[in-house]
Each structure stands twice: as C-alpha cells, then as structure tokens.
C-alpha cells in the first residue's frame, strides 16, 4: 500500500506538422504532456514538474520540450498546462489548508 509518493499523468494532444524527425524524416507529430505530482493516498498535493513534447507519428521517437523551437514550446505549454489543470494538482494542499483553517477557527471560537 503506497500512501505517499510521486505519480505522473500523461496527456495526449493533437497531431501537428513540425520539424523533420531526426530518425525517419517524417514531419507529423503527436503532441503530449506529462505532469508529475506528489500525492498523499493518491490525492495530488502539489505538482513537481511538467514537460511537453512531440512524438513522431511514424517511428514514435520523442522530441522533448528543450529541443523544440521557442514558439512550439510555448504553444505546447498553453495546450497542456492551463491554470486549471495545474491547480487540480494542488487539490490535496487546498483540502489540508481548509481542514487546518477549520481546526484553527474552531479552537479560537
Ligand atoms: Zn520519426
């Protein structure tokens, strides 16, 4: 039974045309994003990292975020990591904060 640790969520996106694949020269890629987070009993407490990239539609080789042009990287980050999606990875922290506030309020009431 794992009570705490880190987990990752893989998000698949759209098909885009990009730079030629370094392995097979194919130019169509699937976009993807991975968000990792610290969890407590499978409830996300806070995100630890996120990464987006392109996966070649032919040979499946990936182009990680750091090897992409700046504009492509920005577009992928906008696509996969909008504010609401990152916020959901803080849901455990928000719940713990609410419980702490309720306990403190009850103590001083
Ligand atoms: Zn390829």
Which percent range describes the beta-strand content? 35-45%
Rounded to an integer in angstroms, the radius of gyration calculated over CA atoms is 19 Å
Number of strands: 4
Bound molecules: zinc ion
Shape: elongated
**Could you tell me the mean pLDDT?**
91
- The assembly state of the depicted protein chains is single chain
Determine the structural class based on helices, strands and strand pairing. alpha+beta
Largest sheet: 4 strands, antiparallel
What is the terminal separation in angstroms? 38 Å
SSE arrangement, N to C? EEEEHHH
Helical segment count? 3
Measured as a percent range, the helix fraction is: 25-40%
Count up the domains.
Answer: 1
- Order of neighbouring strands in the sheet with most strands: 1-2-3-4
Low-confidence stretches: none
Layout: helices, strands, pairs:
Blueprint: E1 4-17, E2 28-40, E3 43-56, E4 62-64, H1 70-80, H2 83-88, H3 91-108
Antiparallel strand pairs: 1-2, 2-3, 3-4
Bound molecules: zinc ion.
Zinc ion (ZN) binds next to loops.
């Amino acid at each position: 039974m794992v009570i705490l640790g880190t987990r990752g969520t893989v998000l698949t996106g759209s098909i885009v045309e990009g730079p030629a694949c370094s392995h097979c020269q194919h130019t169509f890629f699937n976009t993807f994003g991975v968000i990792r987070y610290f969890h407590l009993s499978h409830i996300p407490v806070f995100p630890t990292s996120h990464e987006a990239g392109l996966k070649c539609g032919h040979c499946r080789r990936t182009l990680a975020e750091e090897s992409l042009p700046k504009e492509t990287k920005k577009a992928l980050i906008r696509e996969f990591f909008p504010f609401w999606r990152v916020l959901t990875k803080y849901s455990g922290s928000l719940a713990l904060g609410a419980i702490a506030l309720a306990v403190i309020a009850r103590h001083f009431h």
